[in-house]
Design goal:
With 519 residues, the protein is an alpha+beta fold. It folds into 4 domains: 6-124, Sulfite Reductase Hemoprotein, domain 2, CATH 3.90.480; 150-282, Sulfite Reductase Hemoprotein, domain 1 (2-Layer Sandwich); 304-374, Sulfite Reductase Hemoprotein,Domain 2 (Sulfite Reductase Hemoprotein, domain 2), CATH 3.90.480.10; 387-518, Sulfite Reductase Hemoprotein, domain 1 (2-Layer Sandwich). It contains 14 helices and 19 strands. It has helices at residues 6-16, 23-31, 38-44, 79-92, 115-124, 157-167, 239-253, 264-271, 273-282, 328-341, 365-374, 405-418, 490-502, 509-518; strands spanning 49-51, 66-70, 76-78, 98-99, 105-110, 141-142, 182-185, 199-205, 211-217, 229-234, 306-309, 315-320, 346-349, 355-361, 387-390, 427-431, 445-454, 457-466, 479-485. It has a 5-stranded antiparallel beta sheet with strand order 3-13-14-12-11.
């Protein structure tokens, strides 16, 4: 008998027991010392957790630890939720906590026996981990200031809620070919990065005052690295119907024979845009409208940093940067104290591993921002910190070959000191393996984890990637430079790139990167 392929194994595991049905097993494992079935560990993803790398474990510690991902619907986290996550981090996760690129928050060192208490605490705070991982619809990303931004095109909170409710623990969608990522934004800055979502919707206001949502499909950064294709426009009330139809198409036609060709983008490529659109329209009682494609904001300028007046009278919102998303229990508790002190009630995570305080009394905004800076949360971050993304890295991820979080923090601090007057927004990624969790191919300067020969020894380090860029159909993926280096040399390498750019005639980093790569 031939050995199962990876795809065959995963499909068999899913067919034998739905991922949603593993919850009773989780509680059973938590109450007993029974060894966990490796196939149930695969199903654990449906409740938001993966087994983690043993890199930071003591040699005599044989505990099976997990990373747990908490979904923040719409990126929202109120004071009760913030306190709950902080408590869980401190009590069960050794003080770890990181914001993610899907507006979630991740914890590490989680033990199975602690999960019942963790799930109960999350439930009390209105939080969930269901469908945070696995071959399911992941957290729907959206603009964090949709309901408070005076420059918004459309408040998408209601639509986002409808889509999340459709996805939430939906057994009809608990066995998709692979993970499935949806985004929706009414943001004038296009901050949901539709170009890399499986399915996304962007509000567009036309000269006649009409607001429609453009529909894009097939974006991705992994094995399906491609920019999403624009299909047309729909009305706000039609967004949910399109979401359901595209999701049904993916479930019906997505590739289940090869895990590396199973994302929606692969289906789009197999069908072609015309056939995909024809099939989609056949499932709808309306057709997508054809209009001129709108212009998009460049990726590095898509943040909501700083203090802004809310559309709600007497209120402000503050966009804050957390370098690489690493905040920890200490940072969460400090943030909670500041929010309470200055009468704010909630934050919303962003897809750049940062967050926005959404409802601060305007009279308290500047004092709150000043106090946040004392805990290294910046309302006016440097160009090196604002869009610095890092993945989990070797400390916790089984695929990681290099450490990332601390390096991202130290790299930003180094660049801030070396180039104190640099003002152009730049984007950075520190990615600990050859995969794309920290989006190294869409940033100006990406560090991609790899192994290579250094002084006749195989070592872990990074390869430099330059020139990633998102701006609709003007988007381009960064290119590998062939420059590989050990982590200790990251400061010298990246610093030399910024220095070189400063000393050229190029008007922006994108042109500089293209010149370096293609000269």
């Amino acid at each position: 008998m031939s050995k199962e392929t990876k795809a065959q194994k995963v499909e068999r595991i899913k067919s034998q027991k739905d991922g949603l049905d593993v919850l009773s097993d989780i509680y059973r494992y938590a109450k007993t010392s029974q060894e966990i079935d490796p196939e149930d560990i695969e199903r654990f993803k449906w409740y938001g957790f993966y087994s983690q790398n043993k890199n930071l474990q003591d040699k005599d510690d044989d505990t099976l630890y997990f990373m747990l991902r908490v979904k923040l619907i719409g990126g929202r986290l109120n004071l009760d939720g913030l306190e709950a996550v902080a408590e869980i981090s401190k009590r069960y996760a050794r003080g770890t906590a990181d914001f993610t690129t899907r507006q979630d928050i991740q914890l590490h060192f989680i033990k199975v026996e602690d999960l019942p208490a963790i799930f109960e605490r999350l439930k009390e705070a209105g939080l969930t981990t269901v469908f945070a991982c696995g071959d399911v619809p992941r957290n729907v990303v959206t603009c964090p200031v949709s309901d408070v931004d005076s420059e918004r095109i459309y408040d998408v909170d209601t639509i986002t809620k409808e889509i999340n409710e459709y996805f939430d623990a939906n057994r009809e969608l608990s066995n998709l070919p692979r993970k499935y990522k949806v985004g929706i934004s009414g943001c004038s800055k296009h901050c949901a990065s539709h170009e890399i979502q499986d399915l996304s919707f962007n509000a567009t206001k036309f000269q006649d005052g009409t607001v429609l949502f453009d529909v894009s499909v097939g974006g991705g950064l992994g094995s399906n690295r491609q920019i999403a294709s624009h299909l047309g426009y729909v009305q706000a009330e039609q967004v949910l119907a399109v979401t359901k139809a595209v999701t049904e198409m993916y479930k019906e036609y997505g590739n289940r024979e090869n895990r590396y060709k199973s994302r929606l983008g692969h289906l789009l490529k197999s069908f072609g845009v015309d056939k995909f659109l024809q099939t989609l329209n056949s499932k709808l009682d309306f057709t997508l409208q054809k209009r001129e494609i709108q212009a998009y904001t460049p990726y590095a300028k898509r943040g909501h940093f700083g203090i802004h007046n809310s559309i709600k009278e007497g209120r402000s919102y503050i966009g804050c940067a957390v370098n690489g998303g690493k905040i920890g229990a200490k940072g969460l508790y400090s943030l909670l104290d500041i929010l309470k002190k200055y009468e704010a009630t909630a934050i919303r995570a962003t897809i750049s591993q940062n967050f926005v305080i959404t409802d601060l009394p305007s009279k308290n905004a500047h004092a709150a921002a000043k106090e946040l800076s004392r805990i290294k949360i910046d309302a006016n971050p440097s160009p090196f910190k604002a869009r610095s993304i890092s993945c989990t890295g070797i400390n916790f991820c089984k695929y990681g070959v290099s450490e990332t979080k601390d390096l991202a923090i130290e790299l930003a601090e180094y660049l801030e000191k070396r180039f104190p007057n640099f003002s152009e927004p730049l984007s950075f990624s520190v990615n600990g393996c050859p995969h794309s969790c920290a989006h190294p191919h869409i940033v100006d300067i990406g560090l991609l984890g790899c192994k290579f020969k250094h002084n006749d020894k195989t070592v872990s380090g990074f390869e430099l990637i330059l020139g990633g860029y998102l701006e609709g159909d003007k988007s381009s993926f960064g290119k590998k430079t062939g420059i590989k280096f050990i982590p200790e040399d990251a400061f010298k390498i990246v610093g030399s790139v910024v220095e070189s750019y400063k000393n050229t005639h190029y008007k922006n980093f994108q042109d500089y990167a293209a010149g370096v790569l293609y000269e």
